[in-house]
Amino acid sequence: MSRFLSNLYSSLKEYVPGEQPQDKKYVKLNTNESPFPPSPGVIEAVTDEKIEKLCLYCDPESKLLKQKLAENYSLEPKNVFVANGSDDILNFAFMAFARENGAAFPDISYGFYPVFADLYNVNAEIIPLEDDFSIDAEKYVDCGKMVVIANPNAPTGKVLTREEIEKIIASNPGNVVLIDEAYVDFGGESVVDLVKKYDNLLVVGTFSKSRSMAGARLGFAFANEEIIKDLEKIKYSTNPYNINSLTQLMGIKALEEQEYYDKNCKIIAENREFTVAELQKIGFTVIPSKANFIFAKHKNISGERIYLKLKDKGVLVRHFTSERIKDHNRITIGTKEQMEILIEKLIEIIKEEEV
Q1: How many Å apart are CA 39 and CA 180, to the nearest integer?
Q2: Which of 156, 175, 210, 245 is deepest in the core (most CB within 10 A)?
Q3: What ranges make up the beta strands (E) of the chain?
Q4: Tell me, what DSSP letter sits at residue 326?
Q5: Which phi-psi region, left, alpha or beta, contains residue 12 (left: φ > 0; alpha: ψ -120 to 50)?
Q6: Sequence-ordered list of residues with C-beta below 8 angstroms from that of 166, at least 6 positions apart, any chain
């Protein structure tokens, strides 16, 4: 780091994104991207005519996109916020709602939560998952802090029930409860409709996972009108033109073709169950998942060893080094063909290790 960096950030431990190697072609199962392309309308939307208009600023209010999101989720545009990926929204939420009272989130979850807490000097209560990697909802009841929970959780894929989440929301009326639903479309149960009932609920979503637009960077959130105004205040104080014109248009088209994405989510769920069954046959323990990934460990081979040997064989998975989960790997669910290649390479590895 340079001598000019503020002391405030000198010890900051930044978020580490999943690998995006360019050295060769991989079966890429490490960053929870969709294996399917965007819907036809999204692809057709990026025409030469639209690209020519990039000389003009995008709509800072994203009016049409907000209207379409509100329509699809049975809310009003005043209850919708959009941003440059859901990470932007999480960033704004920690900045806006956690500085005074702090934040509470699980010890094993999305890696950006502790980064944002450190970035804004937020008093973080990091609550350990249970032995089975589940979240105990009771530990977040009346906690007196902004609650941040990914549901389904990452990297485990485990879910809380709607009733458990509502209990957390109802018991924390003085603080925002942020439910990160990045993976909800693969089998979880959304609580978006509870925005109409609770003025402290903030539900965050993304186009990166189920809607095949990870590279477009588009996130959205639903909340009470006043919370939305708070997020808009932060946005207009940082980067008002935070969603480019093409991404806004692609987001609208994606929402118009929701059936295409629903079909893909069903295929991914089927591929997930196939992969779990095949992994169990060859000595893996797999945590039950409702996301587009699974969290698995082998009975005899370390997580790091499996990760490295898979990479050598052209398959990328995500390995974490923290003590509780170092023997696990997070495996994104891809096409049936990709998952068959994964199983084939794992069988090879197991045989090699037995020699």
Answers
A1: 24
A2: 156
A3: 27-28, 80-83, 103-106, 124-127, 146-150, 177-180, 201-206, 219-223, 284-287, 293-298, 315-316, 318-319, 329-332
A4: T
A5: beta
A6: 191, 194
Q: Provide the angle, in degrees to the nearest 10, between the axes of the packed helices 258-281 and 336-354.
A: 20
For residue 113, give the nearest of 154, 79, 141 by alpha carbon. Answer: 154
- Residues 63/195, Cβ–Cβ less than 8 Å: no
20 three-state secondary structure = coil
**DSSP letters for 127-141:** EPPPTTS---GGGGT
Q: How many Å apart are CA 107 and CA 126, to the nearest integer?
A: 5
* 272 and 299 co-located in one domain: yes
pLDDT (tens digit per residue) in 52-97: 889 999 999 999 999 999 999 999 999 999 999 999 999 999 999 9
* Counted domains in the chain: 2
Q: Which of 238, 256, 274 is the last residue of a domain?
A: 256
Tokens 């009003």 sit at which residue? 76
Longest dimension (CA), the chain: 63
Pair of tokens at residue 46: 């990026």
Nearest 5°: phi and psi at 15?
-70, 140
Task: Specify whether the CB–CB gap between 298 and 343 falls below 8 A.
Answer: no
Q: List % helix, strand, coil for the chain (3-state, nearest 5).
A: 45, 15, 40
Q: In the listed set 256, 276, 291, which residue is the last one of a domain according to the structure?
A: 256
Give pLDDT tens digits for 183-234. 999 999 999 999 999 999 999 999 999 999 999 999 999 999 999 999 999 9
Q: Give the CATH number, domain containing residue 27.
A: 3.90.1150.10
Q: Per the structure block, which two tokens stand in for 21?
A: 């190697």
Domain that holds residue 161: 40-256
